[in-house]
Amino acid sequence: MTAKLEEIAARTVRYGELQPCRTAFIDAHTPGSNQKENFTIIGGGVSESADQHVHIKETPGFNIGAAGQPPHCRNSLHVHRTAEIFFVLKGRWRFFWGRWGKAGEVVLEEGDIFDIPTGIFRGFENVGTDYGMIMSMLGGDDAGGGVVWAPQVIEDARDHGLVLGENGKLYDTQKGHSLPDGVGPMPVLNEDELKAIPETPAEDVVPHYVARYNDLMAMAEKKPVKVVGAEGLIRDRPGFDVELVNGASIAGTPQKSERHQVLMVMRGHWKMAFDGGEMILAPGDTCAVPPDFDHTLEPSMSGEASLYRVSNTDDTAGATWKP
Predict the structure, then answer these.
(1) What is the distance between the alpha carbons of residues 170 and 239, in angstroms, rounded to a whole number?
(2) What's the CA gap between 18 and 284, in Å, rounded?
(3) CA–CA distance, 73 with 11 (Å, rounded to integer)
(4) Cα separation of 105 and 21, whole Å?
(5) Contact indicator for 66, 161 with CB cutoff of 8 Å
(6) What is the per-residue pLDDT for 302?
(7) Hey, what domains does the chain have and what are their CATH numbers?
(8) Over the stretch 113-122, which tens digit does the pLDDT of each residue have?
(9) Do the beta carbons of residue 216 and residue 111 sit within 8 Å?
């Protein structure tokens, strides 16, 4: 194996090798949410569990993760302080938001992408018929501590044996755990804090923050489509740009960027070729391409092929763009 092939192989996480954590968050015991699987692919993500496996610790200015859930399983309502962008890899998913999850909702199909506005309560559930997977992009090198749970989520979790400490760590009373001396429970948001979190209707979210996969594929026939970024269809600046690439828009063209780039394969098998070797990327695979890495990308077989390419920017992982 050449040095370059060894380097890029070490920076690639295969879908079939993802290691899930089933105790990542405070609702891990709560009925309806207790079958979730959380994956941290690049960076530590926002897991609250010491059991979480991190595949690639080095971050390029953002984190990459995933959530896998069986049908009817949901992720409980929470607020993020930094960007949270999802695309659906497998299945059909309903995203909902608001204090009680009733301010608005949208259903996403495979390949659809959703840049969820910061500062609103959000949750999601698998409304398909099979195990589903959504891939996530989180703003900032350190996404830890960026989650605030709705008060009812913390209360329900406590009733089922999980307590979140003010240090951001979970303690399982069913296993005999208790809060360490000097560590109190995570305080819940008070009424004034809750009133400051907007109840944003769907008509103010969906047209500006959702991009449909079929539309993106049609637009990407000649060149990659800028999906999220200062020049994107979703004009957000979360610290990274996202574009959709299909086989027609990039095949065989030399690729090189001064930025860190992460390739997240949606459909088909892609051949990445470079001086010293080549490798195949399959659906669900994630590859962290270092700056100034000369390579080409093209589908390795006929049929539909697409991937999301994420690049770091000089923007901070700050507030989501608002129309």
Answers:
(1) 29
(2) 10
(3) 31
(4) 27
(5) no
(6) 86
(7) 16-209 (2.60.120.10), 213-312 (2.60.120.10)
(8) 999 998 999 9
(9) yes
